Amino acid sequence: HGLSNKPALEDLRRIWLDALAVQVSEDSGFDLGAVGVRDSFVYWADLFYDEPLLAAQYESRSDELTDSVDAAVELASDEWIDAMRVKFPMEEDQLFDDAPLDDSIEEYERIPLPWPVKKQVIKHFLKEAHDYLFNVDGIRDRIRKQVMDALARAGDDSPLVLVGHSQGSFIAYDVLTGVEDCPVVDGLLTLGSPLGIDEVQDKLVWSREDGFPKKLQGSWVNVYDPYDVVARLDPKLSNDFRRNGEQVVIDIKEENWGTWRHSATKYLQGPMLRSHLRRLAGRV
User: Fold this and answer.
1) Are 271 and 235 in contact (CB under 8 A)?
2) Which among 33, 57, 84, 134 would be 20 to 30 A from 126, CA to CA?
3) DSSP state of 179
4) What does the mean pLDDT of the chain come to?
5) How many Å apart are CA 91 and CA 5, to the nearest integer?
6) Distance (Å, rounded) from C-alpha 172 to C-alpha 178?
7) How far is the CA of 180 from the CAs of 77, 175, 208, in angstroms?
């Protein structure tokens, strides 16, 4: 999962699985249990927050304007955070988010994100990304172990696919490239990923010409919405994570809806995401 507080592990897992399984237009849904796909959910919100959100509170929010507005976040000042503040300016006099950075992307109605919401989202993202990337209080070590434990539980008798939303996407990448004992996986699916940001890449085992994980033997599918506030600086990853100089990451533009486009549950209802996940899981 990604940034900010969340419901308890089993509640959040259920919410994600329900979003993936619900019928949307022509797509009948991808019910993992019904087709014999096992899942394991890596949960780390409890490393940042004392109490989880109530599931009902999380699910009832209008347009999912994110739980990240629930609490103020104080940011320290260091070189990394200062550099990221330049990427994500937080001017006090703005009321709404500005135009998308990638003006070549068409087909989207402009729906501005209220600035107070964006400001809190950015603060949560900067703090939690910083603490992971710099291993504050051993957070990186602890989350890496959780991912490794989940991979070990999965076994090696069927395709193994890592799915990461938001910060979860660079946690997945970090384990694949930075943990020597990580097993080989058959697929990687990233949603709303900030992996295109230079300051994130610089803290990972990465190079532009050969950044595709060696432990990934199948496809990497990266799904983005250009109005996703976390991914929008550089939503396409194929140019940044090449394999021997070749662009191989599959970038998919999915059409989320409403004001808050970063929602994991919205991504999981996307027909193109589901199609690629079925293929990665061997359930085409």
Assistant:
1) no
2) 57
3) -
4) 88
5) 25
6) 10
7) 32, 8, 20
